[in-house]
């Protein structure tokens, strides 16, 4: 138990702490006195305060200490810029950054990578230098997709990781609780703040039987998605167990955990077992495998553990599935798929088949795919549809190049794309159909929402195992079931494809391929972080000002928003994402989607100093220039949607002081507090109606105290007498310090000094 085993081969001095795990679980067991699920074992062993933390599933907010943080290049930009503004010399928790999202697929891996390196040079230079400066492992463009790199190098059984990407749960394939978060959470953990998570409920999925023939691990999650729908996992961790688990490869389990994101699950988990051991050995982490084996009682559920919900799947009876179009939970077993195509009028011709991505690019996936391709080539035929292959990492690419699968897939007609997200995240310069033209594509990826892959809303995107993708690509039509139908060989003779087969792990070990990792240098003090002052994509952040200690009077209402105001209304995505590393530029989208109650229009508010109607960001900028702070009035559940931290940073940056609403989405409320803003709610929600957009308000900030209401004085624009409104808030003591110091980061920086 007390053995010292490094978490990863890439860093020194960060050990797996199974002793602490055991110790914390002893404390928690005494308190709960019941068998624990594996989920609980991981979460409770990472509690900041196991003695006093409330532990009610679905109710309590857990304060946790994750082992690691991982960021992809798109979300890393603002996270690191924020971290930098705290002025700390190094991240407090081991962290890595992965360049995978910004590489566009166009003509093939090498060329596409070169182009991306030039287009994104300033972003890559910034990330490379900032990682070097702040002690973060940096995986250069070409290294592979974040989740694959994590599985190959960093995930370990019993660990807890947060990652700034929805498919972070992929690491559950190695028994690590890997949870997707927004950038704000990553910054907290990098800066040594505990991380808060509502104690998830636990959904048990018992697997029995054994997969065979064309059925793959992907079909398990496709089936689960069909059963539970895209909302079925919300607030839950999916915990797989049962005798069927042992027949799955570690990478297959990762595929299942990866796609748990499609049902909204917090994450998914598998217990430690022999295939994890084999994978750890194959990826040069035998020490971890031995250590985990010695601690395996803590790395699985207790006998008799109770689940909040339950599902059982017999793998022996599982049929391959195809899910889609437009949503990953529309699951159709292959035997019924032809009928579904006809009944729904989906375009029958298959234009493109895509395999790989973070979801399905393991050695096993590629070997099985290549076995089908080889079968076809042996019969003298090739892919009819356009066919692409995205290796998940440089290690996978190099290994399948060495072992021949890559050549087989190329001979079959495949175009090998860069080891990166590419078409999965819409980084695809697709030229074979015009925008708006209805067509079908099928991939082994995870998400297939409208427009995700190629920005064409008429593209019908289906998701399946790599095996089915290759088979369908060969037929060139959706009306093909490789389990029952025949194809014609080069002489016109009919044949049936042999069910796929392939090794789970490379017999000769993995080939690491090109060196794509940049470790932080021993001497980091001389490293200069590269941000050009003229850049329009990156901007160094200054710490926000501390509170001036005074009540705020005569504040204008920038906008009284009515109806739904999501984080998308507050900080729109799409073309704005280009500026996610430049707070001032991206602030030009602040609240442009919110509806002004004064006129029912978006992005049109009155500037009280000029009486002119103008855009929301312009008006805020004018107030800021004139030294006038402002507030926003909002409706119910303000700030729902994705946890985008820009939605809290922008109002702070443009001079907002408070957001006053009928209610908040919790994550946005916390994000506002972290940035030093005041999220306040009407004690009586009906008071929302009493305020007119032209009114001015006073906020008695000096009254801010835990559990006490807060007074807002309203000065009506029509000259009526001023009146008070009571506001509620959820600040606790430490959060009040955030407000006083100007932000959570300022507070952290102060404490470190
Ligand atoms: Fe990238 Fe798609 Fe995975 S965007 S991280 S390959 S889900």
Key terms for this structure?
753 residues; six-stranded mixed sheet; 23 helices; 30 strands; globular; binds FE3-S4 cluster
Could you explain the architecture of this structure?
By secondary structure, this protein is an alpha/beta fold. 30% of the residues lie in helices and 18% in strands. The protein is built from 23 helices and 30 strands. The strands form 8 sheets. The chain has a 7-stranded mixed β-barrel. A 6-stranded mixed beta sheet has the order 6-5-2-3-4-21, with helices on both faces. Helix 13 (363-378) runs parallel beside helix 16 (466-475). The protein is globular. The model has no long low-confidence stretch (mean pLDDT 96). The protein binds FE3-S4 cluster. FE3-S4 cluster binds at residues 100, 145-147, 165, 167, 357-358, 421, 424-425, 445-446.
